[in-house]
Amino acid sequence: MYSTLIWSLAVATNQTAFTITPPILWLLIGVTFALIELLIIKTQPQKHRFYVLMMGASALIEAFILWRGSIAFQFSWVDIMYEDFDWQIFYWMGIAVALSIWIRPVFIIRKKFVIPEATEATTISEILAGETGMVIYEGASWKARNEDSQGTIAPRQKVYVLRREGNTLIVVPEKFIHISN
């Protein structure tokens, strides 16, 4: 498949099949970067993934632009390959940066922190009715608001986490859960 594509690129640019023209060069660079990404994806940390793939995709876009430009404008590859190659690199890096900023985040899977309903926590400070205080939840201290509008929760008491609103846990005292059952 790739050999057919390379041959069609060479024919479209009036070159022999063995001449490396800029579209063929960028096609080979793009495929190489894509293969490198496939080989090293599991070894990279989550936040560094897909940068090499974006560079490969931008090289493939560069190859397509040069190929279509050669058909539309009928220019000589000698001028493009040697005199204006720095512009090709400039455009390639610009496309790679744009893809890394706008397309790469789509591929990153982020874990969402979800608090299961009615899990236990322990108060650190006294929490007045409808006010906020501090609780220990899963080994970390969190700001918590007392959902019970009539009672105060004493320090070092077990509470149940109902939900999370931003960085604040909404809690009720243990007795509130047992009474309603």
Topology:
Elements lengths: L1 H11 L9 H19 L10 H23 L3 H7 L1 H18 L1 H4 L11 E5 L8 E6 L2 E7 L11 E8 L2 E6 H7 L1
Parallel strand pairs: 3-5
Antiparallel strand pairs: 1-2, 1-4, 2-3, 4-5
Helix pairs in contact: 2-3, 3-5
Helix content: 40-55%
Strand/helix succession: HHHHHHEEEEEH
Total strands: the figure is 5
Question: Please, how many helices?
Answer: 7
Distance between the termini: 67 Å
Radius of gyration: 30 Å
Question: Would you give an account of this structure?
Answer:
With 181 residues, the protein is of the alpha+beta class. The chain contains seven helices and five strands. It has helices at 2-12, 22-40, 51-73, 77-83, 85-102, 104-107, 174-180; strands at residues 119-123, 132-137, 140-146, 158-165, 168-173. Strands 1-2-3-5-4 form a five-stranded mixed barrel. Strand 2 (132-137) and strand 3 form a beta hairpin. Helix 2 (22-40) runs antiparallel to helix 3 and helix 3 crosses helix 5. The radius of gyration is 30 Å and the shape is rod-shaped. The N and C termini lie far apart (67 Å). The model has no long low-confidence stretch (mean pLDDT 80).
